[in-house]
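Tokens in:
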């Protein structure tokens, strides 16, 4: 989950839920909470970002990138 969140998560989707999931994963790594709490936070962040993981982080599918409209001159 840490690799997905830090290296593969779309930057435009790195909001409050994403930050909460990062913190939950770090707490789990430091044994301050359990892995299930980190997983639940990860799933919530994925849902918030519109990312379908089907309950399995290995199946991470980021949403399609939306291209910014070109500015007319």
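Residues out:
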């Amino acid at each position: 989950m840490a690799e997905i969140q830090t290296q593969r998560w779309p930057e435009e989707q790195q909001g409050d839920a994403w930050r909460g999931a990062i913190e939950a994963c770090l707490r789990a790594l430091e044994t301050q909470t359990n892995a299930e709490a980190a997983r639940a936070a990860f799933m919530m962040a994925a849902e918030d970002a519109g990312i379908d993981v089907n309950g399995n982080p290995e199946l991470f599918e980021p949403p399609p990138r939306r291209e910014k409209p070109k500015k007319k001159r």
